[in-house]
Every structure is written in C-alpha cells, then in structure tokens.
Predict the 3D structure of the following.
Amino acid sequence: MKVSHRSTQLWLKTSRSSPKTFICHRCRCLTQKSHFTTTRQARASPEEPQKPDLTTRLRRRIWGTETPPGQKDPYRRLTPEEKAAELLEQESIAEGKQNASQDTATEIARRQSAGEYLPAQNWDGLERIGGATGWWEEEWDRNNVYRGFLTEGVLGEKVANIEDVVRRVAVEILALKQAGGALHEGAQAEWSEGDFMENIDIVKNEDGSFTLREQTPDLIDELVELLQRPPEEEMEIEELSQDIEDPEALGAEEQRLLDEIHAEEEAGEEQTLEENEIPTVATTKTHDPIYLELPLTDIAFKFALIKRLTYLLGTRIPDPKINSSKTLGDVVAYLSEKPKPTKLAEILREIPELKALPNVEIYDTKRNFVQKEMEIGRWKVIEAELKKKGLPIRKSDRLHG
Amino acid sequence: MRRTHLLRWSGTVLTPRTRPNSCLSITFAIQSRNAATATAYANYTPGIDKPVEPSPYESLPSPPPEASRKSARLAALHARLYLSSRIPLETLGRCLVDSTADRHDSFNNSSLAILGNDVLAYHTSELILCRYPRLPSAVILASTSAYIGPYALSDLAKSWGVEAAAVPGGEVDAGLLQFRAIKSDNSESEVRAGVLEKEGKISSKSWKRGVSSLMKQDDFFGEITGREILTPVQSTSIESEYMAAGPGSTYQGACTNFVRAVFGAVYVHAGRQAAKNFFNAHIASRKLEVSKMFVFRAPERDLARLCAREGFEPPVARMISETGRLSVAPVFNVGVFSGKEKLGEATGASLQEARFRAAVSALKGWYLYSPLQVQVPSDVEGDGSKEWTPVLVDGGEVVW
C-alpha cells in the first residue's frame, strides 16, 4: 500500500481544525465549492455576465454566428412546448426574421388558421395507428380487402397498345397543365375511352413546346372536368352493398342504388375477356408519333405521368428507369419491351435456325426416367407390373401405402 | 414396252385414314390397383417424385398422324434415306407400325409392305434373270432370297438406323419401329421370314419337294408356306401377359415388313422411276457371289445330259497335268473336253476330285453366262424411246 504524503496532510488538516473528528478526502471535496462548470447549479445560478461557457463559444466559432442553430442547451431534454417553440424560432431565423421568439405564439395561431403544418402539442385529434381496434377488418374480413394505389390496375399489366395509353395519359396531363390545376391530382380519375383517345392530338410548336389540339370543340375541357372530379361516389356505393342483406328492408333510394350496382356488374361481366386474350385499349386512329419526343424535364409533369401510368397499369416502374427516361418515347420503350425469357427452352425456341431443323426436339425440362420409358412405350408395362405386385410406383406412394 | 400399271394397285393404300371405334380391338388388361400395403420396396423409378403427365395418345395402339410431325427420329430417318419430299413424314411413320402393333390396316404397314414386296420382287427377278439368263431355278430362288429375303432386309433396316420400341403404343415416339415382340425360342437358322417351326422339325412331306414344287406351291423364296406361323410357343414375357393375346412378330420380321413398306411408299408417292432408283441404291448395289451358291451332287452326269441336249459331243475328262502322284499332296490338273474344245478345267488332290471340280467349272461356265450389256425390262419402260434387246431365254435346267 502506497503511503502518500496526502495522508499526512489529512492528518495535519484534521489536527488543526478538530483533533477528534475525521473527515475523508472525498467528503471534504463534496462540501467544498464545486469546480465543475457543467452542473445544473452552476448554470442555474445567475451570475454576472462573464465569458460564456466553452460549448457555446465553440459552437459560435464553428457556425460563425452569434446565434448558432440548434438548442441553446443541447444536453437538456425539452418539453414539447419548448420543442415547438424551438422549431418555430429556427424557421423564423432561417427566414431572416428578427425577434423570432416573441412571434411564436402569433405564429402558432396563424398556422392553425391557415391549416399549415404545426407540430402537435398533444395527441388529441391525431390519427391512431396500431392497437387492437379494427384488427378483424384489417386482417381477416374478406369484405374489407385492402385496396392500395396499385391494387386496382384499371387496365391491367398487359395492354396490347401501350403507346396509345401513354399518349392518352400525356394528353390528360397536358390538359390539366393548360387548365392550370395541380397535375398529379387526376391520377385516380376515371378512365374512359372513345373521344378522348382519338380526337385530341399532341402537336409540337415551332419553339419546341408541346400543346394539345382538339378535333371536337370543348373536348379538352370535358377531359379536365372528368379528371378533376373527386372519386367519392364509388365509395358510397361499395359501403352500401355490404350492408344490404334483407331486401325487404330496402327503401326506395337504396333499391335504386342496388339496381345500379347490378347493372354495373352485368355490364362488367360482358366485358370480361377470354382467357388468352390480351386486353386492347379501344382506339382506331394511329396518331402522329411526334408525341414520343415530348420531353420529361419538368419534374411535376413527369411525376404526374408516372403516377397516372402506374395507377392504370397496376405495376411499378423502377426508379432507374424513371430517372433515365428523358422523353415520352423512353417510357413507351420501357413499357413495350418484352421480358427476357427465363428458361433456356424458351430462348432456344426463338432461334430461327433451330426452329427450322425438324430433327431437333426441345423440351422444357430434362427428360426423366419415366418420360424416357414412355417414349419407348415400356412405362405402361412397368407400371402395370408394379401395380400387380402391389409395389409403390413413386417415392410419394411409399408414405401413403 | 408398255408402262406397267402398278400405280393402280396403290389405290387402296391411299384411302383416307379413318379410325372407326369398333376397330380398336386391342385392350390393355390392366389389373385394378392393389390396395395391399407395400411391404417390399424394390428398386423402382429413382427420383421420380414430380407428376408426369400421361400422354393423351396412350389409349391408341399406334401414334396418330400428327405425332409424326413432332418426332425428331422420324425426320432424321427421312433425311438419312434421302427420301423425296413427296413422301410425307406421316407415311414413313406408318411404315414403322407393324400389323402386330396395330390391327387396323389403315394405320399399319401391311398394305404398303405387300406393294413394296411386289416392287422388290419385280426388280430383283428381272435383274437376276437378265444378268444370268441360264441360272438354275434353285439358284435363282437363293439369290433372290439373298437380295431381298428377310435376313437381307433386316440387315438393311439396321444399317438405316431404325430402332425398335420396347412395347408398341400411341404414346411411343413415331420414329421407332413398333411391333409386338415374341420370343423366338429356336436358333436363328430355323427362323424363316417370321415363321416359327415347331420343335425344330420340318413337318411337311419331304418327298414332295422338287424344284417344280418350290416354284409352284411355296412362297417367293421357295420357303414352305401354310405352316403354324406367328403364334408364341411359350408366352413368358411380361409384354405378352400385359397385352391381350394376339399375333406377334420377331424383330427380323418387323424390319422386313418395314423395308418393304418403305419401298411401297416410295413407289406410291414418288413414282416408278424413283422406286427403281431407290432399289438400285440399296439392293442392286449389294455384291452377291452367285458362283458360290451352287451345290452339285453329280456334275459329271449333269454335264453329260447338258451336252446331249445341246448337241455337243459327249464330255470326256482328260488329265492335263499332274504332280506329286505318290507324295502326300498330289495335284492333278484335269480338263473336261467336248471333242476338241475344253469345257472346263480344275485341279484336285485326286483324279476324281479334279474331274468333279472340272465338271463343276464347266457347268458354272454354262449357267453363269452373262451378256456383256445387261438390260432389264424396266430400263425401257416409259415413253418408248429406248430399244429393247431381247434377253436369251434358256432351254431350262438339266433335268434327268
């Protein structure tokens, strides 16, 4: 044990003050005035304006301003009210307002009235996520199937003439742009063919911009009105159809709505396609391919186009493809491209030289024992003999005896 | 020479293919699935766990015409034989189906085989007769058999690369030769043209079998017909238990019928000249040593009869030279002379042997006469542009 000179000092100290009581070094330190400057007491005590602490000085130097961003006290956990006030202050500083802290209350009031984003003080009125409420409807109820944005796929993944669809979507967005509304809001609007498909053209002006030209008057306005119509009516009808169980209890209006639903269903059934038929969007006119040159440099335009397309087709377009598409033609090219065949047999079947050879047979899978025996006709004999002896024919037959 | 009208005979072969349901007489005697639990796990199909779809044609006795287009084997066989494109793949597929595999005559090769056999027999016989006008009947029959008999044709089928299916059926590849096999329990020498001889004995009356009998009563090769044919002696094979009892065929018999059917198909679809070219390419190009096919019992007597008939002086055998008479290997050179002309000459270890051989040589010299330019009747068939030179008609064999 090391004998330090300190112990002698202790003794010396104690002997001076009071020879009977012994106070250890640690306790002595605690009673003395604290030398740590980061404790609360040190901060809380209002002192004369002296040099600000090291942290503040460092931050000021780093940021180069007297009022560096961030909390005044980064190590203190703020209450929600303080957090809201901080945020507001930072925003106002960023905007260059002075005396920001004084306007916080007015700012809150202003934002509430304007409907802008305001960090909440408490959880009243906020959307609740999770918990036990609604678990049956969400997880198990077959009537309450989740309908996402891409679930619908109004036209389906495979459309025969994809360039017409893309052209029509570009027409819609150009129409909205001309009308001056928000471009992406028409994404989930109704899709109707006919006049809109055929009688509106995309033309290129001398200065390189693209505009619409309608064959029939007011067609563009009709289209805009269709796109801006809110899709609420369908929801009501759906909810109503779920509740209807006892037809005798129907009122007049409900009966009318029910008839409407039945009419829609019948109309839908007539339009169902045969199994192998690829759906085609109805259009008879082939349009001038100038629309393929339409540039997608306007981000809002591109976003609206991609949103509407993915909604209609029900499939995503990968981000790299979206980023690399500079014109409408690129989008059409990506959507039109056939997927690469995954199996070797499919690739081989597309080679024309192999197709022409009659002494070559291409199979999808490797020929197994049974198939080889079937080719020479012996398998039926083997099978009959095994059955006769009561032996299992396949591995799986073992388990079932 | 007028064009022969063989093409007319082929009308029945080209009738439309209809398969009335009543003609499907072959039923598979499949036993009902045994419900007993399996106790012995024998070595069976390893690794087969995925379901294999049964072929839709399994219930048919032979593959349907549309299966011919899908078979690579069949297309390869067609190309290998350099068959004209006028001969469809479906017909070649039909040639591969024996009558024992499918009893319906519109779907097997029996009609084409009959036609093809006639085509082959015609061309072979004219070839032999025009090449060797004086050949005796037995040798003619033997050489015909050597050219187009069952052994020759089955060898030909093997050289064409025709493989046999294990068991015939509708699901089998259309390029395989299909027939219902029977075990030949006798040695190969006793199996003739699909004919099984019971217990290895010739059951016919041997005293009746002269040359005239061969020509008149028996089949084209002089083989005896009308015996017990084509029934299995002991059906121990699984196939014969599995399928309903019916006629079967040997592999050799099936190959023979196939080759005949191909010739028939060539004649029907490609014409007379194409059939002749096909014959020349595959049959006539084969080398046959006819001189080795003679068997003499008493050639000196035959030669004497021949000379008497032809008006030559009676043959006399004279020794020409000899050496080593008292040694262990004497050599006698004997010639047979008719007057001053030497008819034949040969050597032997003894005088008798040499005389025998000399007579044989003389007789062979007579029988194997061949004109310098061999012209067959089918050469001048057609528009009549070619001139027919009459072939020597022999006086006949030496008959005592």
Q: What stands out?
A: Residues 115 and 264 of chain B are 5 Å apart (CA to CA). Chain B touches chain A through 42 residues (CB under 8 Å).
